[in-house]
Amino acid sequence: MSKRHSHRRGSLAFKPRKRAISQMPSINFWPQSSEKRLLGFAGYKAGMTHIAFIEDGNSPNKGVEVSSPVTIIEVPPMCVYGVRGYKAGNVLADVLCSDMKLLAPLGIKKLASSDSSVLTSSTPDSIFVLVYAQPQKTGIGKKCVERMEIAVGGKDSKEALEYALTLLGKEVKASEVFKPGEYVDTVSVTIGKGWQGVVKRHGVHKQRRKATGKVRHAGTLGPWHPGYVQYSAPMAGQMGYHHRTELNKRVMKTGAGAEINPKGGFLHYGIISNEYVMLAGSVGGPVKRLIRMRKAVRMSAAPKVPDIKYVSTDSKQ
């Protein structure tokens, strides 16, 4: 018999646990920033390693050298091919760059008239840049570019628009967006585990052998009334491949790939040849998957550059 006051199985915050619509995650909320900058970036998960650094902040280990796992994300430069303005939630206008070589990977063969006067003469609520990642510059074997939009910060929309127009038609690097010690939120699609039973999917207890002839099975799907199965009842179904956002990942370091590559390269990924971003802790998704990063929405502390003493480059084979 189950406990009357036992905790529920499976968080309702993640219902419905269905497969993500797209492997390219979307971001529906962006923080406010008075600084002229891009508020996000994207890269490809290469793997994990560990570092040793001097703990700072309010930790009990302050001033002590501690070891921490970190995730390495390869961030090839992103191309800014357009600027977009929003007003009242609707697209006001798009301004595309005139360089057809930059637009060719998107399949744009003919450029329609694109004038920035529509944006400069009006007062948009928010400004975004239209960018695409370049996976062909990495060693993951992907050729198709992945395009997205990234919010632009500024004191007002006019300042943000002026800054966005200066980036039009250029490549932007991650080191120009994020600094060591800053906090970011990661948005990704997690590792898919297929159809799983109720024990693995929700963590319910296995039944004893002589209970009902079934062991890895939920004891009940709910009360007699209401006379239907509620959505909160733990049941078998899809596990993994979910769209998830993780908050407050600290940027431990940024730099070039040659200094971070382990002997033999990262497992199932290879050698990093572009810039990288090192994030504290783990990040959702398998290696080679696109990871989107944005400026943290719940962390406003000034960045403190971590004092890193050691970065492991031992073989991961």
Q: Give the helices and strands as they follow along the chain.
A: EEEEHHEEHEEEHEEEEE
The secondary-structure class comes to mainly beta
Q: Share of helix among residues? A: under 10%
Net shape: globular
Average pLDDT for all residues: 91
Biggest sheet: strand arrangement: 1-2-12-11-8-13
Number of separate domains: 2
Mind telling me which CATH architecture of the largest domain this is?
Answer: Beta Barrel
CATH superfamily of the largest domain: Translation factors
Largest sheet: 6 strands, antiparallel, barrel
Kindly report the CATH topology of the largest domain. Answer: Elongation Factor Tu (Ef-tu), domain 3
- Approximately how much beta-strand content do the residues carry? 25-35%
Annotation, overall tally of beta strands? 14
Q: How many helical stretches?
A: 4
- The gyration radius over C-alpha positions equals 23 Å
Oligomer: single chain
State the CATH class of the largest domain. Answer: Mainly Beta
Alpha-carbon distance between the two ends: 47 Å
Model regions low in confidence, pLDDT < 50 over at least 5 residues: none
Compact description:
The protein is mostly beta strands and 317 residues long.
Give the topology, please.
Blueprint: E1 40-54, E2 65-74, E3 78-87, E4 90-96, H1 100-103, H2 117-121, E5 126-133, E6 146-151, H3 157-167, E7 171-172, E8 183-189, E9 192-196, H4 198-202, E10 237-240, E11 243-256, E12 275-280, E13 290-295, E14 307-311
Antiparallel strand pairs: 1-2, 1-13, 1-14, 2-12, 3-4, 3-5, 3-7, 5-6, 8-11, 8-13, 9-10, 11-12
